[in-house]
Design brief:
The chain has 71 residues and is mainly β. Helices cover 14% and strands 39% of the residues. It contains 1 helix and 4 strands. Strands 1-3-2-4 form a 4-stranded mixed beta sheet, covered by helices on one side. 11% of the residues are buried.
Length: 71
């Protein structure tokens, strides 16, 4: 997302879901063991199904991720 920065100075990834309210629904913490990199992904307005699909994207190859859902 434009005008956002992570600890390493790169942009923060923001996923925008299909819910009409674009409030924070979850956060994904990912680690890429091959690149030796960690990232935070912000999920806004995502359904539980969208949360799962996005998590699956970040749990492929050398990446591992966990999903933190906001209640």
């Amino acid at each position: 997302m434009e005008n956002t920065r992570s600890g390493d100075g790169a942009d923060i990834d923001v996923w925008i879901g299909s819910l009409s309210s674009k409030k924070l629904t979850a956060v994904i913490c990912s680690v890429d063991l091959e690149k030796r990199d960690t990232e935070i992904k912000i999920l806004l307005g995502c359904t539980s199904g969208e949360n799962k699909a996005i998590l699956d994207i970040h749990n492929t190859g050398s990446q591992s991720a966990i999903l933190l859902v906001r209640n």
